[in-house]
Write a structure and sequence with these properties.
Blueprint (H helix, E strand, L loop, with lengths): L6 H26 L6 H9 L7 H4 L5 H26 L4 H13 L9 H11 L10 E7 L2 E6 L5 H6 L4 H16 L4 E7 L2 E6 L1
Antiparallel strand pairs: 1-2, 2-4, 3-4
Helix pairs in contact: 1-4, 1-5, 5-8
Length: 202
């Protein structure tokens, strides 16, 4: 990654911000339902908090790659801890959490008449999958009404393993997020197998 701040760094930081906001939405929903108290304080104490404001005002320009990697780890850890903690208390909460995340996805929607390629680009521009150099997703097929891709690297599981969580909860929540993003659009999202996905025109 470049030693100079550029568009790719802003692109990545926006994805970091979105995942952080999704964790905040889950925590707010949990507080509203009376599931927990002080979850945000626990998250801040354990992992710290993400800076607010413009990226150029916060980033360490002497170590851009390292600074961004630390923020990727921060928001991945926050999400894994929040979800795992809430589910340890009551495993039946996942469906409600998925609904809350789906609503969050609607607020970051890609609605309208999208091509499958535009839908894929929307996911690439919003979902956090490590650093750009990790090259997590790989296109398998691209046709006018069908785009298939696979996740070639398990980038999320280490964060869940650290706290003895189940990374499958992450993927269920991510699918709910995507369903929210594409609700009302011309594209449907399908999980077709082990880390394999399709985007199809409706």
């Amino acid at each position: 990654m470049s030693a100079f701040l550029g568009p790719i760094h802003t692109w990545l930081y926006n994805k970091i911000l979105l995942q952080n906001a999704m964790t905040d939405a889950i925590a707010a929903y949990a507080e509203e339902k009376g599931w927990t108290k002080g979850l945000n304080e626990k998250l801040a104490s354990r992992y710290g908090t993400l800076e607010t404001g413009n990226l150029e005002d916060n980033i360490n320009t002497d170590n851009i790659h390292g600074w961004l990697q630390e923020r990727v780890s921060l928001v991945e850890n926050r999400l894994a801890y929040a979800v795992t903690t809430l589910l340890e208390e009551d495993s039946t909460r996942l469906d409600e959490m998925k609904q809350a995340v789906k609503e969050f996805g609607k607020n970051h929607s890609a609605s309208g008449n999208l091509s499958v390629k535009q839908a894929y680009d929307h996911l690439e521009n919003t979902l956090l999958n490590g650093m750009p150099c990790d090259r997590v997703n790989q296109l398998v097929k691209e046709e006018p009404d069908l785009l298939a891709y696979r996740q070639t690297v398990e980038i999320h599981q280490p964060y869940w393993d650290l706290i003895h969580g189940d990374v499958s909860n992450y993927y269920e929540l991510r699918e709910a997020l995507i369903q929210g993003m594409f609700e009302g659009s011309s594209v449907q999202f399908h999980h077709t197998g082990n880390q394999e996905y399709e985007l199809r025109s409706r």
